[in-house]
Amino acid sequence: MENAFQKVAAYQYSSEAIVIKGRLEAEGIEVFMADNYTIDVDPLVSNAIGGVKLFVRTENVEKAKEILSEISRYAPY
Q1: What is the distance between the alpha carbons of residues 37 and 70, in angstroms, rounded to a whole number?
Q2: What backbone phi and psi angles, to 5 degrees, belong to 27?
Q3: Which Pfam families does the entry link to (predicted)?
Q4: Count: domains in the chain
Q5: Is residue 77 part of a domain?
Q6: Residue 38 falls within a domain, yes or no?
Q7: Number of C-alpha atoms within 13 angstroms, CB side, residue 55?
Q8: Residue 36 to residues 20, 42, 69, 73, 74: CA-CA distances in angstroms?
Q9: What is the pLDDT of residue 72?
Q10: Residue 67 lies in domain
Q11: Distance between CA atoms of residues 11 and 19, nearest Å
């Protein structure tokens, strides 16, 4: 399954996910977001459905995780 996607991250709000999505796409990684519209309509369900999920192609998972770990070093939380 060369076109399979794998979840690499989840965020409580779509605004967080969009920033990370942009960073991954800037590195040439194709990103698919799930549940962002649901959470935009009703943010209170975010925890119940597991937040906004970011998926990347299976062959890009390691590169995406490296980028995410690099970003998390500078996160304010």
Answers
A1: 27
A2: -90, 5
A3: DUF2007 (PF09413)
A4: 1
A5: no
A6: yes
A7: 11
A8: 13, 10, 22, 25, 24
A9: 75
A10: 5-72
A11: 11
User: In 3D, which of 31, 41, 33 has the Cα closest to residue 64?
Assistant: 31
Q: Residue 58 corresponds to which tokens in the numbers above?
A: 């299976």
Tokens of 26: 């800037």
The per-residue pLDDT for range 5-50, each reduced to its tens digit, is 999 999 999 999 999 999 999 999 999 999 999 999 999 999 999 9
Tokens of 38: 């649901």
Residue 11 lies in a domain: yes
SS3 1: coil
Length of the chain, in residues: 77
Which segments within 1-77 are labelled E, that is strand? 5-11, 31-34, 52-57
- Single out the residue of 7, 21, 18 nearest to residue 50, CA to CA: 7
